[in-house]
Amino acid sequence: MNSHPIPNIVDDADRLSALMSYAILDTPTEWGFDDIVQLACHLCQVPVSLVSLVAGDRQWFKARVGFPHCETDLDSSICAHALAQPDAVLVIPDLTVDPRTRANPLVTGEPFIRFYAGAPLVTPDGHVLGSLCVIDKVVRPGGLTVAQAENLKALARQVVTQMELRRAVTSRDIARAEEQRAYQVREALRDSQARIAAAGGDLDAVLRAVVAGAISAVPAADGGVIALLDGDHLEYRAVLGSLAAHRGQRVPLAASGAGRCARTREPYLVRDAGSDPHVDRGLAGTLGLGSAALAPILGGDGVLGVLKLQSARTDAFTQGDLDIVGLFTSAATAGLTEASARAETCEKDDYWRGLFDRLSEGFVVGEVVRDERGRVIDWTYVEVNPAWGDLLGIDPKTVVGRSVREVIPDIEEEWIDEFAQVVETGEVANFTRRIETISRWYEGRAFRLDANRFGVIFLEVTQRVEAEDRRSALLTLGDRLRDLTTTADMTRAAAEIVGRTLGATRAGFGRIEGDVEAIEIEPDWTAPGIASIAGRHRFDDYGDLRGSLRRGEPLVIDDVATDPRTRDDPGPMRAIAVGALVNMPVRERGRTVAAFIVHDVKPRTWAGEELAFLRNVADRLEVGVARVRAEELQAVLNTELVHRLKNTLTVVQSIATQTLRSVTEREPVEAFERRVLALSRAHDVLMQKSWAAARMRSVMESVLGLQADLDRFALDGPDIDISPQAALSLTLLLHELATNALKYGALSAKAGSVRIAWRTEQGTAPTLVLDWTESGGPSVTAPNGRGGFGSKLIRMGLVGTRNADLEYGHSGLRAEFRAPLTDIQIPVH
After folding, report:
1. How big, in percent rounded to 5, are the helix, strand and coil portions of the chain?
2. pTM of the entire structure?
3. Which of 125, 311, 411, 686 is the most exposed place for a label (fewest CB within 10 A)?
4. Which residues form the GAF domain (predicted)?
């Protein structure tokens, strides 16, 4: 057991709730987190790094390197102590003497860890969920440098950002699925209403339309029925699907699930017909009933019948399905009510007018206008319902008899051409289209009524389309940011995407100076006719704008002429074509350091969804800029590392030259110098990939080019990435083989050459096989005795496996070297 109690904050209910809201525990590995622990190891020069999330009963590692376990119990947790100091890195130089950790099982036993440093993972709401920690197996009295500690905190913030993005994507997918389901239900309702309108008062057709729509809206259903009340029984009237053969079936009110629904006037969910107390077992077997969703059809003060959807499976329906069934009972009620009243109103237009006027969707009857050649050039409004006026914001009484070009000037030609096509072909047309002059999107269906008339039923879908545009814009932005390598390119790309998505007139990004005193705006995106405002601007020159940004809150102004912060002098804003604006702050260490700006030349009300979109853009841009800065810093560090390493190798070579000056036998001295030079070339190749890997062919060409012209070597094999260790081993091996070939083998002859081929073989474990084949040279023999250092290097083979098969022949050496592929390539986490 731990000698020091686990902090009480571990069991904090709000903290645990915040952790659960990310739905991240026990999820598969992800590159974004794996890259962070790799970078943490590199920056802090440790073998182990973990993204540790502390739950109520364990700590679980979302990403890990150098640590075998994916989780531990809390008695083994050191990261739990990091929860207690959310503003600082917890550093324990010697875990064996600290009272919190000296009895920890990971300290007293395997893997015998000795040093720990953990940066807390703090959510935007201030909850500490765990830590990004680095671990060493040796005591580090000096702990971390200041730079290492700051880098570790920065990487911890990136872990939280990754978690936020992951949660946002999950929420988006759930919302998209819910929206698709709602769209499916809306389409089914619309189809039912259209069929009811076309049923001509035929009761059976009306009821079948309701059942068909309900089945379409609830995919779990394999059959459906409307059973009408008849005395103490319910009679199956409209039947579809698996119930199609049971028309006329009568079920008792007193002993059936449908009867129970009718008696209580409440929707009822039969989850398992085999155990439900209200279901007749014999009847269930006859109908093939496993589960059902039932809703009463009410009319006046009584029950008219029951709408039932059923499935042969148990538990096929959810509460949400039951709610959807209830939506269709309203259509059934309307159909039954209209049918009963039709006998009295069949000679009047009230029947159709009432149905027409009650539709929640917009409905239009139009008649095409043709020119002298019979070509459709316009259409006029013959009839519109009240919902049409609500959806377009136009009084429906003013449009009948007028053409669409008169009612909506500058309307897009598609609104005429597509309806003309419907009349000419008789084919139904589904559409989703925007009317630019009123800035609204509509979705609907057009169908022919006769040779010159058509009908249109539609809904406004502006919010849905704009939400989808914002989601697509975020995905596009993510793709663009991954491919860009400079902050200027990133900000320009983000500005253009935001400006076009929100229909703004200007968008850009700027760095905040001082205590929100001024902003330096980078090259911005502008709509046609709008001037750029790139450059430095003082906030106080435009109004009282600094307060919100200082607090880290968005600066939102719907109208510069009326907002109290700018209304006293809106002239400066109008001078730069600003009627409304949003400044979305970017924060760092509790201070506003930048802002994403969006302007509109006219006043407008910024919707909450638009502000959330801007917040997402600002967050993604912040992450992208941080990545570029980290890569730039890494490049500088790599260059400095290579510079120092080459200086070290130069010093080694100089010391050797001075030390061995008196050696009369120069060949060993020169061999040593060539080996040092070969190592230097290998380091140059590794630098091309920041010491993370090297291309195999580049390593070969670099070392062989020191020995002879490359056209004397034939290289044959796949160009793969190999680890730094493998690159150094391959360099020394090829150097010795080429040196011997120059002295004794094929390269000592003018016509001699060497073929180097490599391949992978699948067996118990994947293996890299490297063949060295000399030809056109003199006969060679094996070295006497054990040979020199070079011979030992060759016998050691690739990465020290000693799996080398050497054959000395008449035209030179033939050698085969084998090594496990896992020892050659970069490990994948």
Report:
1. 45, 25, 30
2. 0.40
3. 125
4. 28-173, 202-348, 486-635
